[in-house]
Amino acid sequence: MILSSIRIITADIQGLVKFYEGATGLAFKWFTEDFAELRTTGAALAIGSTRTLALFGGNVAEAAHNRSVIIEFRVDDVDAASKRIPAETIVQQPTTMPWGNRSLLFRDPDGNLVNFFTPVTEDAKKRFA
């Protein structure tokens, strides 16, 4: 089994895609006006509008109500990447965690938590080698 993607359902697909393009410095590929995807080496971040819920049978998800998932991106330099993140969205400035990652925690416009991290200890670097 391979984790392929994480999908966010939003009422503002244009705004959310623009936010993630600014945060990551990467471009999304638009498949329809209601679905866009940012493909990375390991997996993808997909964003779908609330209109796509009809394809899954209706009211199966609710935009902007996540309170348990953190979307994580491994970046080359979390301190440099933090400069792309709007200050008002930052929850925690870059901090080195006990498990060896230096992490920046922020919220996207829908309130989803996002973590940019860089492995900084030797053990953490080995986990991602």
How would you sum up this structure, described in words?
This protein is α/β, with parallel strands linked by helices. It has 2 domains: 1-65, 2,3-Dihydroxybiphenyl 1,2-Dioxygenase, domain 1, CATH 3.10.180.10; 66-129, 2,3-Dihydroxybiphenyl 1,2-Dioxygenase, domain 1. It is built from 3 helices and 8 strands; from the N terminus they run βαββββαβββα. Strands 1-4-3-2 form a 4-stranded mixed beta sheet, with helices on one face. A 4-stranded mixed beta sheet has the order 5-8-7-6. A hairpin with a 4-residue loop joins strand 3 (35-39) and strand 4 (44-49). The longest helix is centred in the first third of the chain and has 12 residues, at 13-24. It starts with a strand and ends with a helix.
How are the SSEs ordered, and which strands pair?
Elements: E1 5-10, H1 13-24, E2 29-32, E3 35-39, E4 44-49, E5 70-74, H2 78-81, E6 90-96, E7 101-107, E8 113-119, H3 122-127
Parallel strand pairs: 1-4, 5-8
Antiparallel strand pairs: 2-3, 3-4, 6-7, 7-8
